[in-house]
Amino acid sequence: MDGYDELISSLTPRTESDSVNIYQNTVGLACPACEEPFDNLIVCKEDFNSLELDFAMDLCTGTHDGNPLLFTHKH
Asked: In whole angstroms, what is the distance from residue 22 CA to residue 51 CA?
């Protein structure tokens, strides 16, 4: 994904673990997939991850250095 480092530097870190990093979009950046503002970016660092979601959301996806990127959009 082009501009990954710039994107990450504009987001607010929320959670960092061995398997995922979660960043909140507090500045209203557009999702690179759908061009609508997204709520959070989840960077998956392990081959398999389980996400416990508290609410319904739409997901857009991308990759960076082989890691899946999930852009969340709350309903």
From this structure: 11
Amino acid at the residue 73: H
Q: Where are the beta strands (DSSP E) in 1-75?
A: 12-16, 20-24, 40-44, 57-64, 67-74
**Are residues 18 and 45 in contact, defined by beta-carbon separation less than 8 angstroms?**
yes
For 52, the domain range is 4-74
pTM of the model as a whole: 0.88
Total domain count for the chain? Answer: 1
Dump pLDDT digits (tens) for 3-53.
899 999 999 999 999 999 999 999 999 999 999 999 999 999 998 888 877
